[in-house]
């Protein structure tokens, strides 16, 4: 092992490992330091996203959706299924295998790109040096021309609900239950809380989500959020808003005490998930004399190009400002690598798609109606319900809608918001349209295959100009 590299990346999540691969593609000699270890103690690449985030949560969402469909939806298709039963440990085992396969894939990619994987803790020192403390062995000092900080984030913990390991848990623990809790409480009805709540609700838990804010899904276009909330209620997901959790007591049951507009309340649950957001991993990330600037919430301070205050030191992903999304971090990793190599990498922060993988899925890109109103930007919008598309009807998944918002004068698309089947895939068309600065008319004049769910996008674009075909305008 040499001590000197072109690039050292600290953190092998989707921001760090993607940045590392792009650096290697551009001819740089790269080392990646990562300290993550699986529950069996083995090091594993991929960070939060692959090990305990995006991938395992989607694996469980998929498994639980199959179970729910078989239980309650196949009958309408004329398919009778008797004796369905649930094997939760097998479901968790399959999830673990998906994770192991994908993280193993990154290991192969590192090999193929000659990237050195250093298993242990990394700390930024002054003068572009890094202290590397391996899981086994003595600390070493490494140096590099450029350093990328990509240490990600971890769940926020609250004093009112301290984690207990297996009963009061974060999103990580919520992916490890070996049986279905009869009653599941979730603190925080954000993206992660809704996804975890959906998994266990589909498998049979009575799920109650306690949300501090009075509004539901504040970052989402409120027309879409209202529609989603109605659909979640139909599934039995109970969302209580304006609830401030004050105390939890872990006895035979877990007692959750909270206050809402009517005063003090409490509920009893068998398991509790705390999903109130995430915070950046910057504690002890840099030595004092490295002089790394962080903001008041602990995020590494960066400019639009992810350059920190130290020349040659970059920071990408959840550890810096912006949405905590894997693809946002990956794009930042690519941008930084390309700029190091003298190319013109950039990230368009206005066209980052968001997805909440509930059923139906919620997806959006660009600005909401409320944001446009607040900014005084003249706009008009068109909506179209999936119920009026043949494909959604044939699939028996006709809940939800697409909403397209365009500039009132130029017709340029400013935001696209969806709730409905497979909107995680449909949002890609909207993102591409916005990246190309398309108008609603451009989408309206694009031929969409029939019968597909994408016809709802087409019709919503037509609806902006009040000429949707399959609805009264
Ligand atoms: P991380 O993935 O957090 O990786 C950072 C890595 O750095 C970790 O391996 C960590 O151990 C390591 N590290 C930290 N400090 C050090 C150090 N000092 N030395 C060495 N190593 C260190 N995003 C999506 O886009 N789509 C989704 O569907 C989605 N679902 C999610 C579901 C859940 C349950 C959770 C928790 C998150 C989800 N996210 C999703 C968010 C996504 O996981 C993060 O945005 C993404 O992982 C951030 O990537 P990152 O590379 O910045 O950091
Ligand atoms: P997300 O960041 O999308 O996972 O969302 C986290 C959610 O948790 C947001 O909707 C927050 O309003 C909510 N939240 C934050 N703190 C609390 C709290 N103490 N009690 C209940 N909800 C909270």
TrEMBL record:
Domain Pyridine nucleotide-disulphide oxidoreductase dimerisation: from-to ranges: 352-461
- Domain called FAD/NAD(P)-binding: residue spans: 5-333
Q: Does the keyword Translocase apply?
A: no
Q: What does the record's cofactor remark say about binding?
A: Binds 1 FAD per subunit.
Q: What intrachain disulfides are recorded?
A: 49-54
Enzymatic reactions: N(6)-[(R)-dihydrolipoyl]-L-lysyl-[protein] + NAD(+) = N(6)-[(R)-lipoyl]-L-lysyl-[protein] + NADH + H(+)
| Binding site residues for FAD | 58, 122, 151-153, 318, 324-327
List the record's Gene Ontology CC terms alphabetically. cytoplasm
Q: Does the keyword Ribosomal protein apply?
A: no
Q: Which annotated residues bind NAD(+)? A: 188-195, 211, 277
Provide one Gene Ontology biological process annotation. 2-oxoglutarate metabolic process
Family, as annotated: Belongs to the class-I pyridine nucleotide-disulfide oxidoreductase family.
Q: What else is known?
A: The active site is a redox-active disulfide bond.
In Swiss-Prot or TrEMBL terms, this protein is called Dihydrolipoyl dehydrogenase
Upper classification of the source organism reads:
Bacteria, Pseudomonadati, Pseudomonadota, Gammaproteobacteria, Chromatiales
